[in-house]
Amino acid sequence: MAAWFTVVAPFLPDIIQMAKPIFTRSRNPDKAPDLVPQQIIELQDAAAQNAESIRLLAEEMQKTIASLQQASVELDRKLGTLERQLSRAERLSLVAITAALLGFAVAAYALAS
After folding, report:
1. pLDDT tens-digit profile, the chain (113 residues)
2. What sign does the CA torsion over 41, 46, 49, 50 have?
3. What is the C-alpha separation between 35 and 37, in angstroms, rounded?
């Protein structure tokens, strides 16, 4: 747990500053009702900014998903090619083993005669 804290510690003042409310506040409770329209406008602006950010994030996610799907198709194609090559290599190794055993048998018979 301490490892992540040492990484985050230098950024704590910035994180705390960002977490503070950015909306208009009044230190005088008597003027608080006068600030309501301004606070509503600020909230609407924040909501609009959030909506735009969410839209941009959704577009980025769609692009990422599309690229992942394309990579998946390419990987499937490559795996199919590799499986065919492996199958050929297995057949070739069986032929080589059979030829080696046959050669050994012929050599043993020749030495025995």
Report:
1. 556 666 667 766 766 666 555 655 656 655 666 777 887 888 888 888 888 889 999 999 999 999 999 999 999 999 999 999 999 999 999 999 999 999 999 999 999 98
2. negative
3. 6
Beta-carbon contacts of residue 46 (< 8 Å; ≥ 6 apart): 22, 23
Distance CA 80, CA 87 (A): 11
Q: Which residue has the tokens 């490892």?
A: 3
What is the C-alpha to C-alpha distance for residues 24 and 35, in angstroms, rounded to an integer? 7
Sequence-distant contacts of 54-58: CB under 8 A, at least 24 apart: none
Q: Which helix H or strand E contains 85, and what residues bound it?
A: helix 36-112
Measure the CA angle with vertex 109, ends 103 and 110; round to 5°. Answer: 90
Structure tokens at 112: 């025995």
